[in-house]
Design brief:
Length: 147
């Protein structure tokens, strides 16, 4: 019986979104994103209280980055590769959030996220290496003191 549970758990790792749904407490949902500001854009000379286009563009970029981060690097990378093969200009995987970033934006996010992940792994590796060296030196000192 336990073997079946482990086998099913291994299958969940192929689909990280299902694993996240399983780990999320019941009733907890992702916080909804605010409505996109793109629909509220007006002509440059209008006298309304809407924000300038550069501000709404920056807000949309932040929302896209947050949505991509929620999806995860591996999933976004797979969808990005699939979209490149299809030959599209936008990233349709965020259509549920009413976002459609260009593929260049997603490519830049993937590069930045990869560098961030490598930096985290590098610092972990260097920390482990430092601890190993210190432990080896301590062992050598203790061994020399005992002789």
């Amino acid at each position: 019986m336990a073997d079946a549970w482990f086998a099913n758990t291994a299958l969940l790792f192929r689909h990280p979104r299902q694993l996240l749904d399983l780990l999320r407490p019941s009733g907890a949902e992702d916080e909804p994103l605010p409505a996109p500001q793109a629909a509220a854009r007006r002509a440059p000379g209008s006298d309304d209280d809407s924000l300038p286009a550069i501000i709404t563009r920056a807000q949309d970029d932040v929302r896209c980055r947050q949505a991509l981060a929620r999806m995860g690097y591996a999933w976004v990378r797979a969808e990005y590769a699939q979209q490149l093969k299809a030959g599209g200009d936008t990233f349709p995987a965020l259509a549920g959030d009413q976002l459609s970033p260009p593929l260049e934006f997603v490519r830049d996010w993937l590069r930045a996220e990869r560098l961030r992940l490598l930096g985290r792994m590098r610092s972990t590796f260097l920390g482990a290496m430092l601890v190993t060296v210190v432990a080896g030196l301590a062992f050598a000192i203790v061994l020399a003191a005992l002789e």
